[in-house]
Amino acid sequence: MMKKFAITLLIFVLWIGGFAQYKSKSDVHIVRELKVMNENLFPVLDSIIKMKSETTFYKNGSLFTMWFGLDSIKPDLITIWAEGEKISGTNHDLGLFDYKGNTFFVRGVSLDTTIFLRTKSKRKIDFSVNNIIVQKDGTLVFDLYADKRYCVWTCRYHCDKFKLLSFESFDEKMSSFNIIEQEYQQEKH
């Protein structure tokens, strides 16, 4: 019984010690800046920024990721995620651009040069993000809801035009919509 107590106490002390020494690791990368060449993208971005500003969690965040080529059946579908105030990990980063005080990370397999132009400018970005928040008094708080929050749009890039097709959010006060299938069905007829 005493041995079991000693082992439990030792594990508890080691666990507390591990948290006391916790320091987030730096994950800094260089990302090339892009210039938007197809200005038809801007009205879609305006709509996205407006909707994002009305969500509870993402209201103050200014980071987005734009994913190209995620759907092999619909390769012209673009998925855009609100990331909030922090962005995690480099993940097929093709570049980034700023628009109206927001930063959009362009991700995918290859850069669509009918939309973007690579510039010579580069930025250092710290991608180190975790679900642990350290309060001013040193208390560690785990963000249990981090994986349950989302704010995502899809749009289609077809014939040099962009069309917003869907929106979903964890925020129940926001109305979702989805016309993806209707958009592609129209094309078949």
Short description:
By secondary structure, the chain is of the alpha+beta class. It contains three helices and eleven strands. The model has no long low-confidence stretch (mean pLDDT 82).
Describe the fold and architecture.
A seven-stranded mixed sheet has the order 4-5-2-3-9-10-11, sandwiched between helices. It has one domain (25-188). It is built from three helices and eleven strands, in the order αβαββββββββββα. With 189 residues, the chain is of the alpha+beta class. The chain is globular and about 75 Å long. 22% of the residues lie in helices and 38% in strands. The chain has helices at residues 2-20, 41-53, 180-188, and strands at 28-36, 63-68, 77-84, 93-99, 102-107, 116-126, 132-134, 140-142, 151-158, 161-169, 177-178.
* Helix/sheet category: alpha+beta
Give the averaged pLDDT, no decimals.
Answer: 82
Instruction: Note the overall shape.
Output: globular
Runs with pLDDT <50, length 5+?
Answer: none
Distance between the termini: 76 Å
Helix content: 10-25%
Strand order of the largest sheet: 4-5-2-3-9-10-11
Number of domains: 1
Integer-rounded radius of gyration: 21 Å
Tell me the quaternary state: single chain
Succession of helices and strands: HEHEEEEEEEEEEH
Number of E-state strands? 11
Biggest sheet: strands, sense, closure?
A: 7 strands, mixed
How many DSSP helices?
A: 3
Instruction: Work out the strand percent.
Output: 35-45%
Tags for this model:
189 residues, alpha+beta, 7-stranded mixed β-sheet, two-stranded antiparallel ribbon, 22% helix, globular
